[in-house]
């Protein structure tokens, strides 16, 4: 269904039509690009942050949605 360009099939039905489809596509494509097997084709973290901010901006422009967002850009190594 995604291959046919129909993002509505994977969206939360509770949202109805109250979401920006362009932001939803970006939110879907971004993690897919981060998982690219070729490291040279993966986006930089600054690009990821930029894209996430654009997604959030697209969502907040929709007057039918009430959003609360928080984006922490700090990088802390995880314990193994």
From TrEMBL:
Keywords: Kinase, Receptor, Transferase. The keyword Kinase applies. GO terms for molecular function: kinase activity. It comes from the Eukaryota. The keyword Signal does not apply. Residues 61-80 are annotated as: Disordered. This is Receptor-like protein kinase. It comes from Noccaea caerulescens (Alpine penny-cress).
